[in-house]
Amino acid sequence: GRGFLPAVGTLSAWRPPSGPGVRLDSGYEEGHTVPQEFDSLIAKLIVTGATREQAIQRSRRALAEMQIDGMPTVLPFHRVVLEDPAYASEPFSVHTRWIETEFNNTIAPYSGAAAGDEAETGERERVTVEVGGKRLEVVLPAGLGALGSAAAAGKAAPARKRGGRKGGGAAAGGDALVSPMQGTIVKVVVEDGATVAEGDTIVVLEAMKMEQPLTAHKAGTITGLSAEVGGAVSSGAVICEIKDA
């Protein structure tokens, strides 16, 4: 999806699974809108079986049947995990830090329109940004990334695959610091004209009761920062630019 960031949107498709041992708890239906004020949990899928192997098989089928469109979800992540030998084999070898240290993330970034982008039309492009030390891809209207993104020329910056070991996260190219999600600004840490180092927090966003710091993807001088506490930002909005010092 989008790196497990909280997401909002309107459920344009909602196809729950069914079958033996499959249960879905949810308060949403097709056409409902998931707002940013509440928890990002839209459903719980519970699958049981007489054995672990049967439960895994039923889970795979249920996840294959389940369809949610209109916003990013963790469905692709769960589908991939259930096929991973480390999880599906007996005995399994997953542990509490398996995702961070060993899971080979080959899941394609969510490519649908983000909430708040529905009114945007025309060509779109991908921009790679870095938030909290993690690289994420966001989809912007064509040309918006020209403020400094690596995708300004219409070429997508390649998504990084996370392998079994941690590595130093390369900063996103260009000057623009882009919001990876819709939210409300709850803290502005720096002022326009300030000098920052790579990794310094610029602003803090809140969405669905979760706070997400947006950090500098490179060292430089802050320009064009107009963010205010209480202000709303949409996914893909440019927070500021960081010019080389």
Description of the molecule:
This protein has 245 residues and is an alpha+beta fold. The protein has two domains: 9-101, 2-Layer Sandwich (D-amino Acid Aminotransferase, Chain A, domain 1), CATH 3.30.470; 124-243, OB fold (Dihydrolipoamide Acetyltransferase, E2P). Helices cover 13% and strands 29% of the residues. It contains four helices and 16 strands. Strands 9-16-14-11 form a four-stranded antiparallel beta sheet, with no helix packed on it. Strands 13-12-10-15 form a four-stranded antiparallel beta sheet, with no helix packed on it. A two-stranded antiparallel sheet has the order 1-4. Strand 7 (124-131) and strand 8 form a beta hairpin. Helix 1 (52-65) runs antiparallel to helix 2 (75-83). Residues 114-122 and 143-172 have low confidence and may be disordered.
The percentage of residues in β strands lies in 25-35%
Q: Would you identify the CATH H-level superfamily of the largest domain? A: RNA polymerase II/Efflux pump adaptor protein, barrel-sandwich hybrid domain
Distance separating the two termini:
34 Å
What is the CA-atom radius of gyration, in angstroms?
20 Å
Q: What is the compact description of this entry?
A:
GO terms for molecular function: ATP binding; biotin carboxylase activity. α1 packs antiparallel against α2.
